[in-house]
């Protein structure tokens, strides 16, 4: 699996204020790589530097390790967070115009546009003005725009925002398909459940710096400790006395016991006292959503555990 994009030691400041520093990651062929972080972390700044919308103060960005060459824009597709299409143009014309900007053969672009319109349930809409489309339909056309020219690298900034569940599933399946066919995907999204499900690897950024970089599986095993959720009225102090409790949250009759790293859940369960009140009990690994909140709110278990990629 070759490396398509390499971002190395990227740094950018605005008016003396350092926005991102030492950002380094790679996107490999055919993988879905997620770039995550709280609002204002520096994701869009990173993406804008990759897209050449702004220029780095420090570091390099290379395509297929070709040092000193500018990134071939026609090999990249970009769905920006802030979207918009020319209003009084019909769907096919806008898609062909965008393909032409990328030097893509127009007959092939037309074929691809028709295929995608059909796939996205927009068959027969090619002559319709963009402004006559519903919001969801417009989003589908916006999704087709960055893939019309068969880019090697596709950058998707919040592709699922505002989509109904059916369209969300449609986009998700299409992203999988593109990756399967060899397109490299850099995905920025705040929908952690989707990222957890879809991404092969992730890069998490906080206050302009890397906090996690690695394979989704490794991040989960290394960082997503087990938590035990118990429903039943139990004394908080008594629960805190249980072994291997890293953190405890209690609200009403529900207690969430965050366990230490490397706890074996079956063995841990055997140590529970017989008088514990249990209406329901579940054991899960903490989700990417919880990892994200920990980092974003500076509860940061990473620092406490001190051993993950950062
Ligand atoms: N053109 C600019 N001039 C000055 N500051 C900027 C500019 N663009 C971004 N910033 C600042 O850089 C920081 C990072 O912004 P960026 O848009 O990269 O964050 P983000 O991670 O994409 O956030 P979000 O999830 O909210 O989209 C923010 O503090 C923002 O105010």
TrEMBL record:
Protein name: ABC-type transporter ATP-binding protein EcsA
Signal peptide limits: none
Organism: Virgibacillus massiliensis
Keyword ATP-binding in record: yes
MF terms in GO: ATP binding; ATP hydrolysis activity
Cross-referenced InterPro entries: AAA+_ATPase (IPR003593), ABC_transporter-like_ATP-bd (IPR003439), ABC_transporter_ATP-binding (IPR050763), DrrA1/2-like_C (IPR025302), P-loop_NTPase (IPR027417)
Domain named ABC transporter: residues: 5-232
Transferase listed as a keyword: no
Entry similarity comment: Belongs to the ABC transporter superfamily.
PANTHER family from the UniProt entry: ABC TRANSPORTER ATP-BINDING PROTEIN, ABC TRANSPORTER ATP-BINDING PROTEIN NATA
Coiled-coil residues: none
SMART domains in the record: AAA
Record keywords: ATP-binding, Nucleotide-binding, Transport
